[in-house]
Automatic annotation (TrEMBL):
Domain Molybdopterin dinucleotide-binding: 679-767
Gene Ontology molecular function: iron-sulfur cluster binding; metal ion binding; molybdopterin cofactor binding; oxidoreductase activity
Record's protein name: DMSO reductase
Signal peptide span: 1-36
Family statement drawn from the similarity comment of this UniProt entry: Belongs to the prokaryotic molybdopterin-containing oxidoreductase family.
Length: 791
């Protein structure tokens, strides 16, 4: 007999509901995994099996469309509504890939009895959970009073408005626009997600966003570098499978046997935070064995451009114009403009008559790669050189090859900017960018294909104040640095659970006199707020998603009756704005704001309202990222020497720098005390903390966090499979169940992202909040811990 957890709960599946296992999960949405529901199902299973009854039990329902838009794949979902209640969810018709179990769990999310229904005012200490219900009028009065206090006692810069990854739809962030109209508040800097791409790829290629997802199946060799698309890009993993079915190879670089590594033909396990050494070693193989695409490098990158040895900076023809790179023309033995017609410049000027004064950028990159020969890279990464060299050759020799970076876990390591950039160097040196089946990939969506507009009019005169780097949040807030923060508004994010070093974040929250949290649930951040406001959920909120994660532009309709007194983010902002005489910026009907977002793409509100979703590929069918080697930099070439890195105090050529918190720094006091490298992973039952509080999801992955530990490391600590264990360091503790495995590099433990201290124990209790780093990186995957048995 099938285990309860694996069985479809509702045996009476209709044809429409029977869209794979997902629909079964939709039915679970209302039932959860309560024994009563499963017992009933088991009776049905034994009696009727999964018979198709022919009845359409949802025929009487109204349909409502909505875009599932946490930081994920932004699927358009089709909801079935009966008597104002959401009863079923399916994947929308226009999606490029099927929606997932989390999307279907929106049934449980909408109907959850844990939903906030009324404004809550804190009456005890922050963190105590001691709240009392108040009316919206009282809530708005309180907000007005506290905002006025902030304006009178520190000005607009003493106000923070914090978003997050909970809802990427355009109308959600109204309050941040409102703070702009107050004059401009203080924001945070540093991307908690993928700062590696922001700081390592963007300056090289000129733009962060690239859409190469549609080319995955056309590739012959793909490296999933420190990311796990089976879980984090579920909808598109079929394309990787198709690539493999066509004879292509998937290679995963991950210290852990992730679900993707498990499906790959190649898997290497570097130490966390050593990916830049691995990439440079691969580059060395490619250069030494003549596998580079010289024609491409010369035509489309700054590799042949000259660096003046005296200044250590590019030899610009016009020092005031940083696009006037120069190269050496061997035909005329002269230095000429990088874009001079008919010139084939030298990639290396070693041994030429200008060698005393100049090197090329290529020479500098080669010197960096040369540091990572067999012995060095084996010692640093713990991987075999033969494996690294084979992967390098196979990648370079493949007709079409990709490096999938997405928003990979390696980007949440201290050297993430250079880890990303060295992978980009590798792709450029092999000419694997700008053609069908090629690419260096960062997750993206419709905004790459067609432009989008802003929903709300922003204050052009809003002051941009000094920001607070997220890793320093707690510390700076408590020191009133750079300014005293009097008021904080948090929507779409859950910083107490997701920002590094939870205890310091909690201290910061306590120090701010008035914190407002707008959410569907009383989560970890709401527990540290002075006022909690209930917001409407998907299917209850009008919105539009023209986004950075899906090629489909989607509408969100309000067809479900929200519980209690929930309001939309726009409605809440409108009322606050009214009290400050700024309601004119938020007074329109949502359809007007949706129309503004769509206008630059040539789409009207009415068209989207009718079609529900529009695939932007249809509007730009010939798009290929960096087609024909044209980049979005001022020179249109890929910039391999990066001034922005120098400006932050780091080298201009990407290199490997070992993270400070690392087991290889064996002499450091920290590594002696906390010898294990911990990294984080996403699971199928959450997008960060979103979904993780739903029974459906807890049934799927268990009610407690898993802590993966290598068999030998576990034995050394007397830990057995399933034991309750605690990962800890000076910052805090994270408790979970030991998963003892050989499929994890010795010396590394894997912690799960998305748990909150309100329901279990958050892994952010231990994560590193190191700062400064190049690009203000979230260093959660450069965290040392020790693990002990017991809670
Ligand atoms: N189901 C689900 N899907 C999601 C999300 C989610 O929370 N849940 N979140 C979305 C978002 S916002 C993001 S950013 C993406 C993240 O997508 P992924 O990057 O795929 O997710 P992670 O699980 O954080 O990390 C993937 C792998 O990185 C490995 N890793 C950690 N450190 C290192 C390192 O130093 N080097 C190498 N080579 N590997 C390392 C981990 O062992 C892990 O298996 O997923 C998106 N999709
Ligand atoms: N320990 C650890 N920390 C991490 C990571 C990790 O792997 N490990 N990953 C990092 C990454 S990659 C990312 S992207 C960040 C994500 O971190 P966050 O952006 O903080 O993500 P969530 O925890 O999902 O928070 C989203 C919140 O928005 C709420 N929400 C959803 N829709 C709406 C809406 O319409 N209106 C309002 N007002 N609220 C809404 C949800 O209920 C939820 O509370 O976390 C980072 N932090
Ligand atoms: S959670 Fe992500 S993958 Fe799942 S339906 Fe929503 S957007 Fe799609
Ligand atoms: Mo992320």
């Amino acid at each position: 007999m099938t285990k309860n957890s694996e069985r479809a709960i509702d045996a009476k599946l209709t044809r429409r509901a029977f869209v794979g296992a997902a629909a079964a999960t939709a039915a679970v949405g209302l039932a959860g995994c309560a024994p009563a529901a499963t017992d009933e199902a088991s009776a049905k299973d034994e009696g009727e099996g999964l018979a198709f009854t022919g009845e359409d039990e949802f025929a009487d329902c109204q349909l409502v469309y909505g875009c599932c838009s946490p930081e994920c794949q932004h699927h358009l979902l089709k909801g079935y509504v009966r008597d104002g209640k959401l009863v079923k969810v399916e994947s929308g018709e226009v999606n490029e890939s099927p929606a997932c179990a989390r999307g279907f769990a929106r049934v449980e999310m909408c109907n959850s009895d844990k939903r906030l229904t009324k404004p809550l005012k804190l009456v005890g200490e922050k963190g105590s959970g001691d709240f009392e219900e108040i009316t919206w009028d009282e809530a708005f009065d309180l907000i007005q009073e506290k905002l006025q206090y902030a304006l009178d006692n520190g000005g607009p810069k003493s106000i923070m408005s914090q978003g997050g990854s909970g809802n990427f739809s355009a109308l959600t962030s109204a309050f941040s626009t409102f703070v702009g109209w107050l004059g401009g508040g203080t924001s945070t800097s540093g991307n908690m997600c993928c700062a590696g791409i922001d700081s390592g790829l963007t300056p090289v290629l000129g733009q962060r966003m690239q859409l190469v997802r549609n080319e995955i199946a056309n590739s012959n060799y793909i490296i999933a570098w420190g990311n796990n698309p089976v879980i984090s890009m579920t909808g598109y993993f079929g394309r990787f499978q198709e690539m493999m079915d066509n004879g292509g190879t998937l290679c995963t670089i991950d210290p852990f046997l992730s679900e993707t590594a498990d499906k790959s033909q190649e898997w290497i396990q570097p130490w966390p935070g050593t990916d830049s050494a691995v990439a440079l070693a691969m580059l060395k193989v490619v250069i030494d064995e003549g596998l580079t695409d010289e024609e491409y490098i010369i035509a489309h990158t700054t590799a042949p451009c000259l660096i003046d040895k005296k200044t250590n900076a590019p030899a610009f023809a016009d020092p005031a114009d940083d696009t006037t790179y120069q190269v050496y023309d061997p035909a005329t033995k002269t230095i000429v403009a990088h874009d001079a017609a008919g010139v084939t410049p030298l990639l290396s000027v070693e041994g030429t008559e200008i060698a005393n004064d100049y090197v090329t950028i290529y020479d500098l990159i080669k010197a960096e790669a040369d540091k990572w020969g067999k012995e060095a890279v084996e010692a640093e990464s713990g991987c075999s050189y033969d494996d690294i060299a084979r992967i390098a050759r196979d990648y370079a020799n493949a007709e079409h090859a990709m490096i999938i970076q997405n928003m990979g876990g390696y980007q949440r390591t201290e050297n993430a900017a250079y880890a990303t950039a060295t992978q980009v160097y590798l792709a450029l040196f092999c000419g694997h960018i700008g053609h069908r089946g090629d690419g260096v990939y960062d997750a993206c969506g419709s905004t790459t294909l067609v432009p989008g507009g802003s929903a709300y009019e922003a204050n052009p005169d809003a002051v941009k104040n000094e920001s607070i780097p997220v890793p320093c949040f707690g510390e700076w807030i408590c020191q009133d640095k750079p300014t005293k923060i009097n008021f904080m508004w948090i929507a779409q994010g859950n910083p107490v659970a997701q920002w590094p070093n939870t205890n310091s974040v909690k201290e910061g929250m306590k120090h701010i006199p008035f914190v407002v949290k707008v959410d569907m649930f009383l989560n970890a951040s709401a527990m540290y707020a002075d006022l909690v406001l209930p917001v409407t959920a998907l299917f209850e909120t009008p919105n539009v998603t023209h986004s950075a994660r899906s090629a489909v532009i989607s509408i969100s309709e309000a067809g479900v009756t929200p519980p209690g007194e929930c309001k939309t983010d726009l409605e809440i902002t409108r009322e606050v704005a009214k009290r400050f005489g700024l309601e004119q910026y938020f007074n329109e009907d949502p359809s007007v704001y949706i129309g503004r977002v769509l206008e630059p793409a040539g789409i009207t509100y009415e068209e989207l309202a009718e079609k529900k979703g529009i695939n932007a590929w249809d509007l730009n069918p010939d798009y290929i990222a960096y087609k024909d080697g044209e980049f979005l930099t001022p020179t249109k070439k890929a910039h391999l020497w990066v001034q922005a890195w120098v400006d932050e105090g780091y080298p201009a050529i990407a290199c490997h720098q070992r993270p400070e918190e690392h087991p290889l720094n064996a002499d450091s006091e920290l590594a002696k005390k906390y010898p294990l490298a911990s990294v984080q992973r996403k699971t199928r039952s959450q997008v960060h903390t979103t979904f993780k509080n739903l029974e459906t999801m807890l049934c799927m992955d268990g009610h407690k966090p898993n802590i993966y530990i290598n068999t030998e490391d576990a034995a050394d600590r007397g830990i057995a499979e399933g034991d309750e264990v605690t990962a800890f360091n000076d910052r805090g503790e994270h408790t979970g169940l030991a998963r003892v495995t050989d499929h994890l590099k010795k010396g590394v433990v894997v912690l799960e992202n998305g748990w909150e201290d309100t329901t279990a124990s958050s892994s952010s209790n231990v994560t590193s909040n190191k700062w400064p780093t190049l690009g203000t990186i979230h260093c959660c995957n450069s965290t040392l811990v020790e693990v002990k048995k017991g809670a």
